[in-house]
Amino acid sequence: MSSSFIARRLLCVAAETAASPATPASTSRWQRLKNSKAGVWCRGLVTDYKEAVREIFVGAWERPVKASVYMSLLGGAGACVYTKPDDSSFDATLLEYSNQLGLLSPWIRNGASDGHVQNLVKLRNDGRLRHTSLGLLSLVYHADYDPDTTLYEAQCSNLSVPWREIPGRMLDVGFAGRWWILDSKMKDFDVNEEEFKQLPEHMRVTSTPTVQEVERSERLHKESWLPLKVEEEEEKETNVVVMKEDSISEESQIESLKEEQTQA
């Protein structure tokens, strides 16, 4: 009984083995890599990014105005980062403005422009100017010591300038390819306002000329380039002299006639 059961069991196992397909002896390396934990994680990450990109395009198609605003903001931020000035740009701008002021007489320079530029040049020569980038803009501020100074206060990191003091030490802001404070200080750098303090109030204020005044100035400017007509003026003067002489001669003749009549 037991022997017949074992025989039937062996026959069933052999039949199942013959019916099932033969499994490969060993899987490929790529298949093992795909089925590993790292492969599963990478496939899930790629799937998530694919779904995120698809949702972005679908959302932009459904809400074009919102997508345009977001794209404009991203483009503006990218442009600000690309055009953000660096420390070399600040040095070049400072030296250029310093040379422009050096070409002017001290009596003509604007006091505010000259004082601001001279202060920046002194800090630069002392090695106390610092530049930091904040992503969309740049800041220039002054420190207490040159970085090459061997003093303990200059080399100790715990005594460096804290971030909360930077607004009070800030000298300029670089944004969109410009240094705004330096450019504003150099406005009318060739106008010395001290010269006009003694003038009355109405003479110190300038007003925008009207259209008639501009046209009159342009007309006078064009007439100043015209050649002078000297011959016509000389002819007019000679005619006037001749007329005066004729009138004098006629008066003299009349007087002589009157004298003859009186004598007769």
From TrEMBL:
> Which biological process annotations from GO are given for this protein?
protein insertion into mitochondrial inner membrane
Q: Where is this region: Disordered?
A: 237-264
Q: Name one GO cellular component term.
A: TIM22 mitochondrial import inner membrane insertion complex
UniProt superkingdom = Eukaryota
Note one Pfam family from the annotation. Tim29
Q: What is the name of this protein?
A: Mitochondrial import inner membrane translocase subunit Tim29
Its lineage reads:
Eukaryota, Metazoa, Chordata, Craniata, Vertebrata
